[in-house]
Amino acid sequence: MIVNHLKELYDYRNLIWQLAWSEFKLRYKNSILGYFWSLLEPLLMLLVLYMVFSNLMRIQVEYYQLFLFIGIILWGFMSKATTIGMFSIVGKPGMVKKIYFPREIFVISSCITALLMSVFESLVFIMFMIYFRVPISINLAYAPLILLFLFIISLGLALALCALNVFYRDVQFIWQVFLQIGFYITPILYTIDIFPKNLQRFALLSPIARIITSARDTIIYSSPAKTEDLLFMFLSSIVFLLVGYIIFSKLEPRFAEEI
Amino acid sequence: MTAIKVENLHKTFRIPHEKRTTIFETLTGFFKPPTYETFYALKNINFTVEEGEALGIIGENGSGKSTLLKIIANILRPSAGSVTALKKLTPFLELGVGFQSDLTAAENIKIYGTIMGMQKREINDKLDDIIEFAGLEKFKDTKLKNFSSGMQVRLAFSTAIQTDPEILLMDEVLAVGDMEFQQKCLDVLSQYRKDGVTIVFVSHDLGAVRRFCDRTLLLHKGEQVVLGDTGDVIDRYVYGGGEEAPNSSENQNESEVAETEAKSEDKSPRWGDKTIEITNVEFYDKFGNKGTRFNSFDPMTVRIFYNAHKKISDPVFGIAFYSENGENLFGTNTELKNASIDSLEGKGHVDLMIERIPMITGRFLLTVAVHTHDQKPYDWHDKQYSFDVIPTCRDIGLFDVPCNWKI
């Protein structure tokens, strides 16, 4: 059944891509300047946070600007994927009511839109890497896997959120609060070591925290990802996707009526 | 081979009295279960559509036609029963689904084409054709928001017809657009018909249904009234199917409205000394049933009931048809038709037999009168009665002129 479903989705790959790409273009109003403006937000954020945390808080981390940037990009991806994904059904009543294709396609393409947006930021990140002459190693090979986990977790969250948002419109506000809190309890601005030991364990329950730390280790610091972390990320991405998918498919039949 | 199978299909909508759209409301209302109004949109629908067949679905507004089509298209899900489509469905429920006003014509064609199930290469190959067919060559890279609505419809339509459907679901697409556009739609539909595409067609345009559909399903308030040969089903719809007459009451109301309107326009719609009184006028269709809706070109009988209070010799009964705008279209009386009446007394009726209603479409008003040989009225009902004519052909105008082309 799962195989059939995946095959069906695969048949719709063109549509997924078209929807993702058009959404991406719409967000940047189809102009070069638009892409530039979209980069400005994370770069400004990076600049402000860098100045505050490296000068005022005196955080001593090697390559702190990259350390910070990678956290902002990865967290930003998750935040964008879930936010765009959350509106992918309620934002398209015309399509939901007038045509049928598997509804997951809306969510998947939103996550791809978020990915495209993040790719842009990543290009700047790569330029930073080159500028600061960060040595890279074979451990970089872990990175795609880690990013895949992040994508799957975000997709699972987006599936659940967008389905719930059809029925409960305050989900969007609640989720924004969650994202705000999450930003500070995830080691984005600082290393996990600044937490006390027992809080560290708590913070590491979030797979996003592990994804960000592992991504830093493998991309910036040339060290391998911990097996324990990889396992945790793997299992949690399965759980997130499964739970998200179950919620989605339970609510999906009534989308066209409720929207 | 069966293309679509609908079995014991039911659809109910639960309409809450007070809609809860937030978690907060749901939590605060936890101990007060929400109350619902249940609306039965479809009740026990059963039919199959064979491959290559065109099925029409007709019925009044709110009879569940569109709901049924949406369930077949998998947009809505049945409350009970099942719908099985054994081939790929292409729904034309609306033209231009997913159009983005901030993207250009070419970009929108790509998205819309993909939504309608076209392959990437196919779209790229046909892109120029589509734009040319829509007559928008100069606007290929113009954003859609700068298009007029007519241009948008043309663009959507010329994209949509490039799809290669196996089963086509069509809902009132023809209702939008001018005559030329409707003609284009009908041409495409007949092309699909020739290509052996299975079609499910929902429409109010009985003429189009009659022309394209092999079989037709009539729905009334969510129930399947009859499924069968298109001609029979349309008769059933127009004439309301005998004693059941689901439409007649409604139409009587309508005609009452029309009567009151006529009254308000004319202060004294009835005059005469009433020595002979016209007590009622009724219309009968080709099955002998009373009604006020008729297919064009069908026979019809107008029955005038009278009550002569004393013996009257040589009365003349007359009628006149008016268009809704009050133009006199036709008038005749018993004298002109050489059907003189020697004398009348008591109650009775006279019939006017119309072999073939020549009107094409519209509402028509009727004046009925009885008067003396020298035009002195006994009872004159001016435009007091009305009936509707439903088109069965695609000619236009008020009246059919019997004619042929010779080429």
What does this structure look like?
The complex is a heterodimer of chains A (259) and B (407). Chain A is 78% helix and 0% strand. Chain A has 259 residues and is mainly α. In chain A, helix 2 (13-27) crosses helix 6 (104-131), helix 4 runs parallel beside helix 7 (142-167) and helix 7 packs antiparallel against helix 10 (207-219). Chain A is globular. In chain B, the strands form four sheets. Chain B has a six-stranded mixed β-sheet with strand order 5-6-7-3-8-9, sandwiched between helices. In chain B, strands 10, 12, 14, 15, 17 and 18 form a six-stranded mixed β-sheet that branches. In chain B, strands 2-1-4 form a three-stranded antiparallel β-sheet. Chain B is globular. At the A-B interface, helix 2 and helix 5 of A face helix 1 and helix 3 of B.
Mean pLDDT of chain A: 90
How are the strands of the largest sheet of chain B arranged?
A: 5-6-7-3-8-9
What helical percentage do the residues of chain B reach? 25-40%
Largest sheet of chain B: 6 strands, mixed
Q: Compute the number of strand runs of chain A.
A: 0
Strand content of chain A: under 5%
What is the domain tally of chain A? 1
Structural Rg of chain B? 27 Å
Count of discrete alpha- or pi-helical segments spanning 4 or more residues of chain B: 9
Average pLDDT level of chain B: 84
Distance between the termini of chain A: 28 Å
- Oligomeric state of shown chains: heterodimer
Rough outline of chain B: globular
Please state the structural category of chain B.
Answer: alpha/beta
How far the N terminus sits from the C terminus of chain B, by CA atoms, comes to 42 Å
**Share of β-strand residues of chain B:** 35-45%
